[in-house]
Design brief:
3 helices, 2 domains, about 0% strand
Length: about 100
Amino acid sequence: MNKQSICRCVVVSMLSITAASWAQNSVGLGLANFKDNCASCHGASSAGDGPKHSFLLKPVSNLTWIDQHHGGKFPHELVWEVIDGPWSEHSGPHVTRELPA
């Protein structure tokens, strides 16, 4: 194996490790973010049964069905619009734009 081939192998290995590490960190950060900001209402399992759900004015959505209601695809943009709200007068399902409720 020549020097150029070894360098290529090292670079590919480093990129693979970095990508895998980033993916694990990304999922971990997403789970931590959900736990800190969403689980109090939506529940740890996302079924809408969090400890605060009974105190809210509107029923809490069961998030486990989102992809099934959209043809098996997760609608990322729609979900962000619901979370962040459209930039209008309407506050959407969260009553206020302040989350967690």
